[in-house]
Write a structure and sequence with these properties.
This protein is an alpha+beta fold and 222 residues long. It is built from 4 helices and 9 strands, in the order ββββαβββαααββ. It has 2 domains: 136 residues, Nucleoside Triphosphate Pyrophosphohydrolase, CATH 3.90.79.10; 55 residues, Winged helix-like DNA-binding domain superfamily/Winged helix DNA-binding domain (Arc Repressor Mutant, subunit A), CATH 1.10.10. The N and C termini lie far apart (50 Å).
Length: 222
């Protein structure tokens, strides 16, 4: 069916911010653009929404096409619609974000990307469009959620030590935490539970392993 409107319509895209923690820092998955505009620049995975496609399906499709990544849980972040953010035309983008353990994904550059790589959030190269703003918005959202939900656990394997969990919190919050106070606080929330297993790390005493009470889901801390 053909439509005719009195006013021009903007194009709609989706962009996806995927965070992981490795090398003791927060990193984001970026692609190197294969085409203009911003050819050879680093950017977030993403692209235009098809006319018969819903937003989340478009985000998952673009993510898979450009990085080979699939089956991750995406949460809608924000809508970015400043005029001039795309030199081709008026483009509004709906951004999504996800957090994953560093061992879970093996991204591969797809047909629309010259390369794909994890990049440290604090040392990003020059980015295409307004993707630096999108990444900073996503980082702020994840840091805020770390204070009232179990999102920090999503960066870790199924089982982890309290020291590993504390390291994630320190990276997300950008602050050093007292070990004794952190352990008292996190255990009082009843959002993680001991598995009964232990892990030995070199010559150190074995450390108790924990897992989220609701594995695979981000629970809100009461």
């Amino acid at each position: 069916m053909q439509y005719s409107y009195a006013y021009p319509h903007p194009a709609v895209t989706t962009d996806i911010v995927i965070f992981t923690i490795q090398h003791s820092r927060l990193e984001v998955l970026l692609i190197q653009r294969l085409k203009d505009p911003f050819k050879d620049c680093w950017a977030l995975p993403g692209g235009f929404v098809d006319i018969d496609e819903n937003l989340e399906n478009a985000a998952m499709r673009e993510l898979c096409e450009e990085t080979g990544v699939r089956d991750v849980y995406l949460e809608q972040l924000f809508t970015f619609g400043d005029t001039g953010r795309d030199p081709r035309e008026r483009v509004i983008t709906v951004a999504y974000f996800a957090v994953v353990p560093n061992h879970l994904l093996q991204p591969i550059a797809g047909s629309d990307a010259a390369a794909v790589a994890w990049q440290p959030v604090d040392q990003l190269p020059a980015l295409a469009f307004d993707h630096d703003r999108i990444i900073e918005t996503a980082r702020s959202r994840v840091s805020a959620k770390a204070r009232y939900s179990t999102i920090a656990c999503q960066f870790l394997p199924k089982e982890f030590t309290l020291s590993e969990l504390q390291t994630v919190y320190e990276i997300l919050l950008k602050e050093q935490l007292d070990k004794r106070n952190f352990r008292k606080w996190i255990l009082s929330l009843n959002c993680i539970e001991a598995t009964g297993a232990m892990r030995r790390n070199g010559q150190h005493r074995p450390a108790r392993l924990y897992t989220p009470v609701d594995p695979g889901h981000v629970a809100f801390i009461r």
